[in-house]
Amino acid sequence: MLWLNLPDGLVLPVRLCRSARKTLALHVTAEGIEARAPLRMPQARIEAFVRSKETWLAKAWQRQQSRRQAQDAMQDAAGEGVWLLGERWRLERRPDCDARGQWRDGLCLLPEGLAPAEEQRLLALGLQKQAARCLPGRVPQFAERWQRAPVKVRLSPARRRWGSCSATGTVSLAWRLVQAPLFAIDYVVAHELAHLVEMNHSVRFWAEVERLYPDWRRGHDWLRHHGHLYAVI
Q1: Whole-number Å distance between alpha carbons of 38 and 157
Q2: Which sign, positive or negative, has the C-alpha torsion 128, 130, 132, 135?
Q3: pLDDT(4) > 80
Q4: Which of 85, 91, 128, 194 is a good FRET partner for 233, with 20 to 30 A between their CA atoms?
């Protein structure tokens, strides 16, 4: 076990994990910091590497803590609301509710007496249905501006990527994106449509995003600051 001294005086343990790898890497989560090292790498070299990254590690850990606090707040509120298109829908449990749950008039209805895991499952299924109705429909608005039309638009279960674009022209959108405001959804759609022309993140790519959706920065910044909240479900 190694130790990391943070600027505020807090001391964090750094768990050392050795394996048959060739490089030394640091992994930061809300649970802690992990140093992944080759089997025979000297302890002194590992400790020196950790010390050299102390400032970065402190910021990364504090960022993870902020995310966890936001997620905890979201989960604490799960008994009262769920996000859809950037709006908070009130969550209610009713004895006469359909076993699959219902979404109507700003209410998300679930049957009473369900275990938390089952509630999460029904919420996920409900959001997937909402995503199927909404997300593909955000694509045609760009038809007059795109240089290449997508061959197919599909939903994906991804948690870490809001969208992707294949070399064959398939655009994939994460169903969890339906929790975000429309301007953020439209940014992701424009981002993936731009990849149909530029399969990279070059200056030309961002120029294409700008041409498709001039307000893209607003959606980009929103997801950068709030997107992790939508991975709770």
Answers
A1: 33
A2: negative
A3: no
A4: 194
